Amino acid sequence: MPSDPVEMVDDLAKMGLYKPDAFTIAQSISEAELRKQLFLKIVCKGDSKRERLVGDLIQLAGGLDQAFAAAFGPKAGDFFRDAQRTSSVTRREFLRNIAVGAALVTLTNCAPGGNKPDIGDTNVDPELTAKLEKTELKVGFIPITCATPIIMSEPLGFYKKHGLNAKVVKMPSWGAVRDSAIAGELDAYHMLAPMPIAMTLGLGSSSFGVKLASIENINGQAITVANRHKGKVKGPADFKGFVIGVPFPYSMHNLLLRYYLATGGIDPDKDVKIRPVPPPDSIAQLVAGDIDAYLMPDPFNQRAVFEGEGFIHKLTKDLWPNHPCCAFAASDEWIDANPNTFRALNKSIIEAAGYASKAENRPEIAKAISERAFLNQPTEVVEAVLTGKFDDGNGQTLDIPDRIDFDPYPWQSFANWISSQLVRWDLQGDGKAKTAIDGKYDEVGKDIFLTDVARELATELGQTPPDEIYKTETLAFDEFDPANPAQYIEEQIKKYDV
């Protein structure tokens, strides 16, 4: 047997002793480690204390890619290409690392408890596959637990089960997701529920037709406050003067934060500063004092507690039980060009959401999506979010099973509430939302939220989606009648004078 790891692993691969994706996974890990070492070598110049500090900041940001993208955006690729040319790491050494990494990947997958969960019959119908317009797909995602069905569908085999070789692509921010969607760089995307409405109507960007195909998660967010404010924040009025992070202007996070602050007499546009912050950068900004609090998707609320930097003030499920957050979306143009592929992709995600909705499956899902290629977070942090067994940073250990949940049904009443708040808050300050939406709530919702398609696919999977498309939404401070969104806005403004 050859002594060189590269030759040895090559022989073992030919013998069929490796999982097919072991080398792909190992290469991504090796490249990530190489990039990190290059960055530390060039930036820290041998200063061990500086290296530890930079390493901690990278960890807080959720990984080097997130930290570097947040700091330098598209210039990150240029930096690493230049750095790699000057590196002392040889191609042979790099290949050796990949070979050893592949061995470790395979050994890990063969270890006790390393088997994939049982997701049912995974045999693909050849007739179905033959109808697919394309099978090699790229689906963009932000590394947050809201994306669980989209992420888990790759490692757990839901995409493959429906005849697709779909790869999830980690994105640094929601702005990058929007821009990549418009540029046609992705086949489909993980989006915040308000984004398809905003993009289609040209709010915050040029008009670009996007459909919301299914809801990724309900609940799953929280308001987290820096520990330096512990004991001072009891309710919405106490946020006056704060700088508060949200992941994107057209997000449920921004709309729910504004809803909450207004009930305490806080004008979100005058009494606080609401700042867009990429989720992976949120903890670093909290630690640095750039923001005082944030309403963010998990796992970054729980990660702040884990790091001893913040406490969970309120779960968003307490503001609106079972509210929508993130969604699976694709452009009008892509859906029209790939109707069968779109249905297969949406169906795989709806099935994954159904699987994730079962509490007994969540510990295994947490292990699968915590990995470096996906969330890049400690498994115990992700598991705390998915199981609802968590410390809140205020000395309490809580058990809230629906802290996050997964129901893919895109209620039209969700669309109407979102639209009502886009009109109420006029985020662009030009009245465009009111012009585009007022008097056309049902029309806008039915054009963008594909409720009937989601119901049809869920029924094919044996799920039991509702027959209705509207329901009265009960929030913490009021009820929303989807038939009267304009009246709802008037009542909100009258009640809180904001």
TrEMBL record:
Cellular compartments annotated: Cell inner membrane
Keyword Membrane carried by entry: yes
BP GO annotations: monoatomic ion transport
Matches recorded under CDD domains: PBP2_NrtA_CpmA_like
Major localisation: membrane
GO cellular component: plasma membrane
Protein name: Nitrate ABC transporter, periplasmic substrate-binding protein putative
Protein's organism: Acaryochloris marina (strain MBIC 11017)
